[in-house]
Amino acid sequence: ITLKDLTYLYYAGTLIFLHGLTFSTFVGGTGILLPDNPMLATRHLPLSMTLGTICAIFFSLKVLNIHSDHPILDKWAKASLFLLPIQIWSVTISLTVAGVFFRNAIHLALCLIVVYVAIQKIRREKDVALALIILISWGLVLSGWAAYLLVQLGFLQPNYFTRASILFVALVEILLFAIAMTLRIKKLEAERDASKKRIAGLSRYFS
């Protein structure tokens, strides 16, 4: 696997922006970050969350080989990237309720695509371990989003865990993605070795 592999780039983007989410939560919220421009400091959190979620979603889809197993869903997911500038604008400049809802709706739709593809992988008994890790990670993400939303709507009492649920989920997701990346590398190495053996066998056959 090399830097040319989009899986690696999505993984790196996930690490960068989710660590940015952690940084924004613990530093930006205290006023240490950009104290002379608090409005700019508060933009780090939604921006890191938006970009981190997009990278995590497309890392998951790439790992699950959606382009070969579900080409139509793959096209729909890639088409959503054209809306990324609008998402960034909605959470950094406008900060309207409609803009945040628009971003969350897109992320939820893409997340459900990931869950669907992972479930289909498990049902077909194809890359089960990898699909299960992705499914667990996004199940936790949905749970974190749900807890945060229920707190905002007043259905759950706010406490340290519910307020930081998205942050906790992001940290666990990073760990699970590291395992998924390891499994993908091993899979690619096994496929490469099998290909070399087939080529060597053909060479001996025709020699």
Describe it.
- With 207 residues, the chain is mainly alpha-helical.
- The protein has helices at 6-26, 38-42, 44-63, 66-69, 71-79, 84-94, 97-123, 128-153, 160-163, 165-206.
Return the string of H and E elements. Answer: HHHHHHHHHH
In terms of DSSP E residues, the strand content is under 5%
Radius of gyration from the CA trace? Answer: 20 Å
Number of strands: 0
- Sheet having the most strands: none
SS-based structural class? mainly alpha
**Share of helix, binned:** over 70%
Overall spatial form: elongated
Mean pLDDT over the full residue set: 79
Q: Helical stretch count?
A: 10
Instruction: Give the N-to-C terminal Cα separation.
Output: 32 Å
Spans of at least 5 consecutive residues with low confidence: 29-33
Structural features:
207 residues; 10 helices; elongated
Itemize the secondary structure elements and their pairings.
Blueprint: H1 6-26, H2 38-42, H3 44-63, H4 66-69, H5 71-79, H6 84-94, H7 97-123, H8 128-153, H9 160-163, H10 165-206
Helix pairs in contact: 1-3, 1-10, 3-6, 3-7, 6-7, 7-8, 8-10
In short:
This protein has helices spanning 6-26, 38-42, 44-63, 66-69, 71-79, 84-94, 97-123, 128-153, 160-163, 165-206. The protein is mainly alpha-helical and 207 residues long.
